[in-house]
Every structure is written in structure tokens, then in C-alpha cells.
Amino acid sequence: MGSFRMQVGNAEILALSDMNIGIGAPMQELWPKVPPDAWKAYAELYPDAFDGDRMRLEVACYLVRSQGKTILIDTGYGPGPIRAIGGRRGELMLDLATRKVTDDDVDIVFLSHLHLDHVGWNTVRRGDGWVPTFPNARYICHEADLEHFRKEEVQAAQTYRFMYMFVDPLDEQGLLDTVSGDFDLTDEVKAVHTPGHTPGHMSVLVTSGGERANIQGDVLIHPAQVTEEEWNSRFDVDWDTANVTRRKLLDQVEAEGATVVSCHFPLPGFGRVVRSQGKRYWQTGL
Ligand SMILES: [Zn+2]
């Protein structure tokens, strides 16, 4: 396991873990168009991304420090207990405490998208209501995701209904900002619309001192997708758009030699796209 901290010029990225889970559902159910045998080669290449013949998923979040701002990217599954994954509870707050980061330190919570495993620590329960976990933070997401995840049929199809707990209270308390396109969080940190996984999915580019990192979010949720860019998981909302976005992002990071940061890959999720015999592969490490 490599370093959990990376420097990008004057900016810093810390990898944080909320949890690591072996997914109970068979691959065929999660990846309907991928023949089960096609995973074997990738299980040899990326053993930490598998749990036997099933998928192992890290749920990481990232803390970016840039120009005096502390930016938390995504908030994991949250305190739970989450029945769908064996009553597990997220450990992001423990991990932050270990790094001596307090709730008060966070200036911006940037949500790459609004799936449950990215918004769980947005709020904490107080009495009958929900209050922000990070009291000094502005929370930011794309308006297309807010619209999408508020739809009745979309909420009904999730693991459980979560918008009323983790997102709507922030909006009601005036703490949520929505963006409609690319957006500068600091001069070094730029959010870029990368739709497909969800309509308002965003990645975060960190550029400083001639160095680059791309915190890609869920454009890629498994290292095999670096090679198999048309493999959609059932979590991709719009398969065709997700594939176009994935190819574009892979082309870009490969051409730039950027470090890629991947919250669902084995920790710490820092790596690069490399080429071997005409194909792209994930190479873990800085
Ligand atoms: Zn996710």
C-alpha cells in the first residue's frame, strides 16, 4: 500500500477511508454486459479489487488542501448502520480524527455526485432533525444531480431513501450551492462536469506547480475499466454517456501523464494509466 498523502505542486491530497467492502452480489448482477469469465485476467492483475469471484470496493474520500482552503471530496456511506451491506458503519470521521482534521476545519464539502456512498457523512442526526457534520462548510454539488436524485422513482430505487437525511437538510439550511458546469474551487482546484455515471457527476482536477492530479470520482469504479472502457456497472445511469466520458477522461490523463485518484479502487487510490501492448492498464502508486 502506497502513501496516503500526495503533493501536487503547492496543493496536497490526503486519501481517507470510509470503508472497504466485499460486495455480496455476483459480478453478473453488477456488470450485466460483462461475461463472468472476462474478469479472470483482471482478478490476477488487481487482486485487491476482488473478493474471490466477486467485487471488493473501497469507499474512499479525499481531503484537498489548496490556497488556505480545506476541501473534502465526498463523504462516504456515513454512520449507518447500512443493512444492505451487513450493518456496516463508515469510519471517515475516525480517519479524519487520526489525521488531526476536525469537523470545523473543512471549508468546502464537494460532492462528486449524489449516490448514497458519497453523501453519507454530510449530516448528523440531532434530535428530530439533521445538522451539517462540518459546521463551517459550504456544500457543493451539480444541479443536475440534485434534480435527478429528488425524483420519486429514483429515490425509490436506491438502497434506501437518503436525500431527506443527507442532502435536503443542507439545502433547507442554506448551506448547499449547486453548480451547472465547470467550477473553480480554488485557482488550483477545478471541478469538471463528467456526466454519465450520474447526470451531474463531476471530477476534480488539481493543477499546481506544473503537476496534475485528476480525482475522477466514479467515472471508473473498478481498475478493469481502465482497459475495458465500455464496461458499465449497473450504477451508471446513462451507459452511452458514461462510456464517452470514460474514454475522454482516459485519453486526457494518459496524454497528460496525470496522477489519477480513484475512490473505489484499492487504497489509497493513487495511480496512473499506462500502456502495454496497445492496451491501457491501471498502475497503482505515485
Ligand atoms: Zn460510488
Care to describe what's here?
This protein is α+β, with helices and mostly antiparallel strands and 286 residues long. The protein has a single domain, classed as Metallo-beta-lactamase, Chain A, CATH 3.60.15. It has nine helices and 17 strands. The strands form three sheets. Strands 1, 2, 3, 4, 5, 6, 9 and 10 form an eight-stranded mixed beta sheet that branches. Strands 11-12-13-14-15-16-17 form a seven-stranded mixed beta sheet. Strands 7-8 form a two-stranded antiparallel ribbon. α3 links the parallel β5 and β6. It is globular. The model has no long low-confidence stretch (mean pLDDT 96).
Please supply descriptive tags for the structure shown above.
single chain; 286 residues; alpha+beta; Metallo-beta-lactamase, Chain A; eight-stranded mixed β-sheet; seven-stranded mixed β-sheet; 9 helices; 21% helix; binds zinc ion
Shape designation:
globular
Estimate the helix proportion, in percent: 10-25%
CATH topological fold name = Metallo-beta-lactamase, Chain A
Mean pLDDT: 96
Order of helices and strands: EEHHEEEHEEEEHHHHEEEEEHHEEE
Class per helix and strand makeup: alpha+beta
